[in-house]
Design goal:
Family: Belongs to the protein kinase superfamily. ADCK protein kinase family.
Strand content: under 5%
GO molecular function: monooxygenase activity
Shape: elongated
Structural class: mainly alpha
Largest sheet: 2 strands, antiparallel
Strand order of the largest sheet: 1-2
Radius of gyration: 35 Å
InterPro entries: UbiB_kinase
Keywords: Membrane, Monooxygenase, Oxidoreductase, Transmembrane, Transmembrane helix, Ubiquinone
Mean pLDDT: 74
Helix content: over 70%
Number of helices: 8
Organism: Halalkalibacter hemicellulosilyticusJCM 9152
Distance between the termini: 51 Å
Oligomer: single chain
Number of strands: 2
Order of helices and strands: HHHHHHHEEH
């Protein structure tokens, strides 16, 4: 950030956390540019490291980038430590304290011996990958000859969508049965009123029977829907 490299800051954010596939890169770049401008004219010794890291994490969370818990705790610890140091000695900066250690760390990281070891390890990994190429090609050829190529499709939100559709269908069923119950009861009551007497089927009151059957169906549907826990 002090080197005025927005792309470097964005790369650091990518390496810190899990970035969603649908992230708006233009908006992320604009937020990082704004943060970088805040520290454009600030001397290195006057930078509040904890606050800068906290602001960087805020940008990451605003763009739904998941930062590991341990890094979040480090940011909070830096913020707390800077507050304590400022109370003890306002002229003292945590950056000044950490600067010698940072320089020593950079010397170790970019020491020719260390870099040679890293190159050697990478060459070993490359050698192993190249040795595995014939075996992988043979496996792919065998699978292709059999005519069965496994394809794994991952839809993280499919289960949530199906549950939501299930709730909608249950509520729709509830509404339809409630409407049917109302229509049946209104029809029976109107028929009884127009006939001038209670409607009888085989000497049994039809209104009461219809009301009882519809009520039982209504209660059963309610029970089944609420029991499923998807209402």
């Amino acid at each position: 950030m002090m080197r005025q490299r927005t792309d470097g800051v964005i790369k650091a954010i990518y390496e810190m956390g899990i970035v969603p596939d649908d992230i708006d890169m233009d908006e992320l770049r604009a937020d990082v540019e704004e943060l970088r401008e805040e520290y454009y004219d600030v001397p290195f010794s006057q930078i509040h490291l904890g606050e800068a890291v906290h602001r960087l994490f805020q940008i990451a969370h605003a763009h739904r980038i998941q930062i590991p818990t341990n890094l979040t705790l480090v940011g909070k610890a830096l913020l707390t430590l800077e507050g304590m140091i400022e109370k003890l000695d306002p002229e003292l900066s945590i950056v000044k304290i950490a600067e010698p250690f940072g320089r020593e760390l950079l010397k170790q990281r970019y020491h020719p011996k260390q870099m040679a070891e890293q190159v050697y390890d990478q060459l070993q990994d490359l050698r192993k990958a190249m040795l595995n190429i014939p075996h992988n090609v043979e496996q792919l050829t065998s699978i292709t000859k059999k005519g069965h190529i496994p394809i794994e499709v991952t839809m993280p939100k499919l289960d949530m969508f199906l549950k939501k559709m299930d709730r909608i269908s249950n509520r729709l069923s509830f509404s339809i049965v409630l409407l049917s119950f109302s229509i049946i009861m209104v029809g029976l009551i109107i028929g009884s009123a127009l006939g001038g007497q209670a409607s009888l089927l085989w000497n049994v009151p039809a209104v009461e029977i219809g009301f009882l059957v519809a009520s039982l169906m209504f209660v059963w549907l309610l029970y089944s829907i609420f029991r499923s826990g998807r209402f």
